[in-house]
Predict the 3D structure of the following.
Amino acid sequence: MIQLVGGFVGLMAVGVPLALVVLGAGILYVWYATDVPMTIVAQRLFVGMDDFTLMAIPLFVLAGYLMNEVGLTERLLVLARIIMRKVYGGLAHIATLVSMLFGGVTGAAAADLAAVGITMVPEMEKDGYSREFSIATITAASLMGAVIPPSIPFIIYGVQSETSIGDLFVAGIIPGILIGVVVMVMNFVMLKRSGFRPRQQAAAERKPATPLPVALRDAAIAVLMPVVIIGGILAGIFTPTEAAGVAVAYALLIGLVVFRTLTWRKIRVVLEKSTVMSSVIMIIVVASALLNWCLAYSQLPAKVASALLSVTDSQAVFLLISLVILLLVGMPLDPVPGIIVVTPVLLPAAIQFGVDPVHFGVVVVLALTIGLATPPVGASLFVAMSISRVSMGRLSIAITPFLVALLVLTLLITYVPQTYNWLLPLLR
């Protein structure tokens, strides 16, 4: 077991890419700590790829990139401006609303942050918001992208835990929306406390150039995609993998026929970007099959479950310990590798404590996602720094109030699952 943990930490410490860390740690463990032939490595990697559900990942990634290239962000921004133009702190709330709507299409927090941040940070600065506050609120809001379906982390958890991806998608709807609500409340409180007053806008900006019906039509066409995906899965029309294919077809139809903003050159660029992103995710997922075998061989999950049961017989205490572990793991790791690392270790214990696998999946994804924005190593912070050119120190201070509020939300969802799980029986 020391070889497995030491290999994982050691490879990360020397800067090896994360996909190769997962694979390398497994190979080192098999080589040094077992008498099993090395052919087990190839066997487990093949088993890791031999899952039809995994085809949904590259297809959802491709659909997200296509919808971004279509010009979705701008259309969502137009609608949000019309709705929120007379609300105090309107642009901050607009950024949150756009992230909420955009997250339901991309399925990834980093994509949400990049698309919305590039557009909104300059706009917010023009209206008098500080750059630190602007990028902090957008970074916090972008976390919805990993929770609101279609969510790539939920797909990974569903495959790892053999849990219904459709149920996970439904379970993520309300927690994802609540992230947006919490961010908007924090926007209002922080701006009121600082005495913020927006700069006077020009008359042309006060009156929207696009009529509300037109803005609703354009935005509705884009936001309809996650509705089609979730509705189709729940109605039994198609599987999650087939839903991903429908999402790609829908994105192409909107871009080529309806909006006509996609060109063959743009499609080629999108294919290149999505291939790179999907390859990184899939290498990690495939390597996780070897890592899971190593964990099972070492009996670590059973040992962890036994240790936790010896410490406490309380489900509440177990969930608190799990949250601490997940938040610590989520700081250096993205949600996808984080799920791969913690699910086989903590899920068996969660089941012994009587925790529903779907609820535990929500807790895992939510806690790991907060790690994306947790200083000093959260991945979303580095994206935010590159967009805004705000230093890590200033960004860390600006985003801390949002993180505290989101941690309170995570505790609420963890201990009061009734906040969201009432939707499951209604949509099943």
